[in-house]
Amino acid sequence: MAAGSGSHRFPFKAQVSQGDLYAAALACLALGAAGGYWFAARRAGTRAADERRMRDIELERFAEQLAAAYAASPVAIFLTAEDGRITEANDTAVAMTGYSRAELLARSIQQLGFWRGQPESYEQLVVRLLKGRVLHRLAAFERRDGARRDAELSITLINRDDGRYLLYMVEDVTEQRRQSAALRESEERFAKMFEISPNPIALIAEDGRIVEANPAFLEASQYGMEELRGRTTEEISMWADTGSAERFRRDVAQQRDAQNVETVLRRKNGELAHCQISWSGFESSGRRYTLLIVTDITELKRRSAEVDRLNASLEKMVQARTAQLQMANRELEAFSYSVSHDLRAPLRHISGFASLLGERPSVQEDAEAQRLIGVVTRAAGRMAALIDDLLAFSRVSRLQMETQDVPLGELVRDIVQEFNLASPDRQVRWIVHELPVVHGDRQLLRAVLVNLLDNALKYTRPRATAVIEVGSGEAGDMVAVYVRDNGVGFDMQYAEKLFGVFQRLHSQEEFEGTGVGLANVQRIVERHGGRVWAQGEPGKGATFWFTLPRAQAAQSRVSAAARNVPEKPVLQMQESMAPSDPEGRYKL
User: What is the mean pLDDT of residues 63-70?
Assistant: First the structure.
């Protein structure tokens, strides 16, 4: 080095402070006579070691990142030995199977059920993986609680220093498959309903063009599917009503629905049809569609017009019949006037002449003549009573009712008092229960009670003590009132005859009467919307029932209750008030 200039390297061994030796190199650069020498020493192999150390650090970092991804992966990861024994499982695998990590590491992948029902055995799978393939398949596995779940598997082979392993990436797709199956079933149901629906249905794209139409739409429009597909409803001239066409186009563009829009549509042959149409938008596969549903109401319109025509005709008939009825009523009034005057006058003459004849001395001395004159006088009296009853019967149908709330108890007490004054010698026990307030014509209802109570008095004459009872019961939105007596009664086979005009079950000699009173009762009750019936037994008395509307205040309460209790109402009475009812006639 003293002989010349330049650089030189000298290998040597150096000793560190701890006494260890390591290889080193000394570099020397001659700087010339004036400059001297520059020396540098370097540990042998330092650059390569630094590079290896950097690679080790990077590998450690990658391993840490891989471990973090493995632990946090949303996909279950299993690592198994070649025979299927599970050697590693991440947290997702633990949560997905329901087993603890220790329980998983004590099992094989086959025990989880992944290979049940697969087309190839586990051994065949391993052979395929050894060829370097990555396998993907659908499978099912069994959770710790026994539940079967669907999964998607990705399997690959990994070679490590300690042997070959299988890496499983498992995703639970049970819910996705359930949703897919439900969606598929829904689409199949919709397609079936679309196909078999009797209503014409068309599927319209967002641009207004027809995508699909069901058979009913094709039949109604008279177009084929190829003629419709890709065309708008305007292009096939479907709209006879331009207003409806504009509304449909606007609603489709603005994604608005509509129901039961009445319009007129045109078929391919130009025939018009009255229709109700509805449309509704929906999205499918990211695209928007409109479902157009048509109901042909042409026949309904025709029938409605026919009903209107018949109603108008019926109205004319009603007006004509009303005019006829008014004329008949006027004729009846004229007849009543005629009966009142033309028939009563002769009767008065007969009665008057018979009375005068009876006052003659010669007649007074003749017993037979007196008897005959008495027969004539009584017959004339009966005839006058009959005429009066007939006139009253005819007036019942023609009188304009003045309805109001009527307290029946008050009416009955007044009538009983009048009867007691008129028959002071009769022994009568009156039993009058609390009676309801009803809605009706006060005078007509009084006539009903007078007739029934008068009959009860009449037919209890043979009894030493007459017992007459008046009570009531519930009958849904009506009230039922009864009059019961202990009189002679009647045979039930003749019950329907009781309410006919001139129908009597007893002779005039037994009990007087004209046979019109109960007919009047029935007509008055029916005008009030009720009905009347009777029950009796020979020698054991009779009971007469009639129903009337409740008072208006009570009616509103009953109507409200009826909305909650819709059962058919039956007659309800206090047991002490109810007469015997072997035939169930009290049920309304």
Answer: 61
